[in-house]
């Protein structure tokens, strides 16, 4: 039986993302083999479609397939629960947690997935039935990074939103503290690279302890054009988390200046709600730190020894920096000679709390330092292995012109070595600073005791007289 010719159209809207798209013409499909003939003709690509035409097609034409790359509903194929156009990265998993993740449909997830203890429900009434879930039974930092990159043009207004729901969150076994002793809470995270602020420690439980879907919104106005990647995670850097994190209905859109101003007028910019951020470009230092190395057409193995040497030089420079830090003069403090018992007691309590926070931070830094040293050793060993392998292949290729020599891409390994070397030095310096501060607290406590004893002694002598 022969069928007639039929026209198929695919409309794609894309004004924010950079993505290479391949069109495949085939007979049959993956896991669906068929026999017969398929004829294709008159394939056209038209890039002159206006936004008005596209919107009209979306609203009225049911005979075309429409794809909007600016909205990512977090979908998967029918035969695979892995998110399309997303890559999973397990960044922290010290306790070898069991990690379960993927795209689920709230209508059948409890039957299909054993690790789902209750359905998350639907984020919005008119939104997707699907959501991305990340679950771990002990603290982890796991993220899904978008394979699509999003371009935010200078002096243009954007809105990025995603619905999040968390359940059964369990913080790390030991609470974490900031440098000034504030308790850090753990939770889900939404990271957008290239901007100056992000969501971390997301916990969607309300005041009654009930978990519900909540929309998290970035209003972005970059002063310079930037290209970003979106990362959805359970936990974040140095704040591993156990439990469930669900994400749904991710959307990125551009706004007019009036639309942007009208939306943010609802908020007090000095006291924004926890689910709204006003963002711009990341500071230059952060961008430079995150920028990848560019080796052009050079043979990367020619620099492997230099990279390792640079790592050693950075470590040596750090030693001199620490010596400078230790040698720098301490600021003098003026002490009131009037003895105040209450003030002394409060000072002692504050001192103990600071020492507890410092000891905890030192413990975490030492653990992180050990991990970084192990990772650095592995990366150096891997670079040396690939260098040796490449040099061997090079020798073989000299005597055999038919052998095609491929240069493996080791830019990421070199970048990891550079980053880990700097990170190790910074951690060592942080530990040194905290140890010095702890010693300073001990010395100050000793001096306070001596002064208090001296004042009490003088007071007793005065009373005797």
Tally of individual helices:
7
Helix-strand pattern, N to C?
EEHEEEEHEEEEEEEEEEEHEHHHH
| Cα gyration radius (Å) | 29 Å
**What is the makeup of the main sheet?**
11 strands, mixed
Class from secondary-structure proportions = alpha+beta
Strand tally: 18
Shape designation? extended
Spans of 5+ residues with little confidence (pLDDT < 50)?
286-298, 324-339
Q: Care to describe what's here?
A:
The protein has 465 residues and is an alpha+beta fold. The protein contains 7 helices and 18 strands. Strands 4, 5, 6, 7, 9, 12, 13, 14, 16, 17 and 18 form an 11-stranded mixed sheet that branches. A 3-stranded antiparallel sheet has the order 2-8-15, with no helix packed on it. A two-stranded parallel ribbon has the order 1-3. A hairpin with a 6-residue loop joins strand 12 (188-192) and strand 13. Helix 6 packs antiparallel against helix 7. The N and C termini lie far apart (124 Å).
Observed structural traits:
about 475 residues, alpha+beta, single chain
Give the structure's gist in a few sentences.
This protein is α+β, with helices and mostly antiparallel strands.
Q: Layout of helices and strands, plus pairs?
A:
Layout: E1 10-13, E2 17-18, H1 51-60, E3 65-68, E4 71-72, E5 86-92, E6 99-105, H2 109-112, E7 130-146, E8 149-152, E9 157-170, E10 176-177, E11 183-184, E12 188-192, E13 199-202, E14 214-220, E15 226-228, E16 230-234, E17 241-255, H3 257-264, E18 276-279, H4 284-290, H5 304-327, H6 341-399, H7 411-464
Parallel strand pairs: 1-3, 14-18
Antiparallel strand pairs: 2-8, 4-17, 5-7, 6-7, 7-16, 7-17, 8-15, 9-14, 9-17, 10-11, 12-13, 12-16
Helix pairs in contact: 5-7, 6-7
């Amino acid at each position: 039986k022969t069928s007639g010719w039929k026209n198929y159209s695919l409309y794609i809207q894309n004004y924010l993302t950079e993505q290479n798209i391949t069109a495949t013409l085939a007979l049959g499909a993956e896991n669906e083999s068929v026999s017969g003939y398929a004829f294709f003709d008159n394939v056209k690509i038209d890039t002159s479609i206006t936004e008005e035409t596209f919107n009209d097609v979306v609203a009225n034409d049911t005979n075309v397939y429409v794809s909007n790359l600016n909205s990512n509903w977090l979908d998967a194929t029918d035969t695979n629960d892995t998110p399309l156009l997303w890559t999973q990265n397990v960044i922290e998993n010290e306790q070898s947690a069991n990690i379960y993740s993927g795209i689920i449909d709230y209508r059948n997830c409890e039957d299909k997935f054993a690790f789902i203890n209750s359905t998350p429900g639907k984020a919005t009434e008119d939104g997707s039935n699907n959501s991305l879930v990340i679950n771990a039974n002990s603290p982890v930092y796991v993220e899904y990074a978008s394979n699509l990159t999003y371009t935010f043009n200078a002096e243009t207004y954007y809105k990025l939103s995603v619905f999040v729901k968390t359940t059964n969150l369990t913080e790390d076994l030991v609470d974490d503290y900031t440098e000034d002793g504030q308790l850090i809470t753990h939770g889900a995270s939404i990271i957008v690279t290239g901007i100056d602020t992000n969501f971390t420690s997301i916990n969607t439980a309300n005041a009654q302890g009930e978990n519900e879907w909540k929309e998290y919104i970035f209003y972005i106005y970059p002063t310079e054009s930037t290209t970003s990647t979106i990362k959805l995670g359970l936990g974040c850097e140095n704040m591993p988390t156990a439990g469930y994190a669900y994400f749904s209905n991710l959307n990125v859109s551009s706004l007019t200046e009036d639309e942007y101003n009208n939306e943010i007028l609802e908020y007090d910019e000095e006291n924004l709600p926890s689910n709204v951020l006003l963002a711009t470009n990341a500071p230059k230092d952060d961008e430079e730190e995150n920028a990848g190395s560019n080796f052009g057409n050079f043979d990367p193995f020619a620099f492997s020894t230099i990279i390792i040497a640079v790592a050693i030089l950075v470590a040596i420079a750090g030693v001199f920096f620490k010596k400078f830090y230790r040698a720098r003069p301490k600021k003098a403090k003026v002490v009131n000679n009037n003895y105040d018992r209450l003030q002394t007691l409060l000072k002692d309590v504050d001192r103990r709390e600071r020492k507890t926070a410092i000891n905890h931070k030192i413990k975490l830094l030492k653990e992180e330092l050990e991990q970084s040293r192990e990772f650095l050793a592995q990366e150096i060993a891997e670079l040396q292995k690939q260098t040796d392998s490449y040099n061997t292949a090079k020798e073989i290729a000299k005597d055999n012109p038919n052998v095609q020599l491929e240069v493996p891409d080791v830019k990421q390994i070199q970048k990891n070595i550079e980053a880990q070397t700097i990170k190790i030095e910074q951690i060592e310096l942080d530990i040194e600073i905290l140890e010095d501060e702890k010693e300073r607290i001990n010395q100050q406590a000793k001096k306070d005791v001596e002064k208090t004893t001296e004042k009490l002694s003088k007071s007793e002598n005065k009373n005797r007289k």
